[in-house]
Please model this.
Amino acid sequence: MKGRASIQNLWTVFLERSFNILLAVVAILAAFLVSGLLILAWGASPLDAYRAVFEGAFGSPNAVATTLTRLSPLVFTGLAVAYGYRSGFFNIGAEGQLFMGALAATWVGVTFVNLPGLLLIPLCMLAAAVAGALLALLPGYLKASRGFNEVLVTLLLNYVAIQFFEWSLRTDHPTPGVNMQWTLINWLGIKDPTQPYPKSALLPESAWLPSLGSVFRGDLFARLFSEAGWYQALLTEPAMNRITLAPVLALAAIFIVFVVMFKTTVGYRARAVGVNPDAARFMGVNVRRTIIVTSIISGMLAGLAGSIEVLGAQHRVIEKFLVDAGFTGIPVALIGQLHPYGVGLSALFFGALRAGANRMQIVTAVPIAMIYVIQALAILFAIAGTTIDLVSYWKKTRMAALSERAEELRMETKEVPNA
Model:
């Protein structure tokens, strides 16, 4: 009985700690189940459609490379929304912050073309983080000091940022070898003056995120695994040259945000303000400063999403170069239950759907719009799941079991002297 009670207690603790992840998985599975009925009504086989999606997302090394490329910016925008939401700062401006991050990273890349990669890549990412943070700082300050609604302010700033991005993309950037008179306005632009259409110059290769293939061909891995068969197979796989360090940076961001959110005083204060600002203020938390810091961190994450896409995938910006990735961060965060690990799982779900959508339409004639139906249903089920407070039930059950066990031990200790 004691062993069974101990196992049950461990199982309850596991459910409590992993509830957010489990709820995200259940929401995704439920979305596939209900969407399967719609696919049947369309006249196609759900199994064939989902098999095509899976093959398009994971069926080959090139498919995996596409999925990882699609999910990387979504991880950052999802983390931006999740961190802000947990802290009471509802950041709906990740789209604009992403565009400003991409703009800043591109500007640094096309301006300081002679810098080595070890300096240029971090400088581009730092510029993107600062640009995103500055755009989020304004609504954060207005909320903290004037009580403005950050949802409205961040939403409206999206259009300001995107319009500035479009203007900058149409303003020639000073370029060596181009004979024209440059003004201060030109230094705000990023357009390649040699191109008739609005797009930036291609970033120098020193600003590109290294591919995993180039990393594995480095001296360190060569010395450690040169005789291993799997290592030689990786070197000969062309898809390894398509997968950059972007997904690795995304995984690092998930871990860092988790540590900041749950293992530091900064995260504790932010979550306390998100739960109840008045109680947090009573506990001695500087609510105003916490809201501002939260807005900065959220904006930095969204800005980094833009740099990840520019440095890792497209290597230049064009009009609508990454449409809706910032707005998609909202459902990514919601399906992930506002938890960093859940955001990673949710971003994988979104990236896989988008990578496999075309193959599903080709193989089964199911329209790509079904992908958006699956996403919408997953969001619906994830939100509905938050109304079920199983964690409190499990905690009460576990505490009742511990109390009962303590009472049994107390009775046993009383019986020993009498024996």
User: Anything to note?
Assistant: The two ends are 23 Å apart (CA to CA). Residues 179 and 193 are 10 Å apart (CA to CA). DSSP finds 18 helices and no strands in the chain. The mean pLDDT is 87.
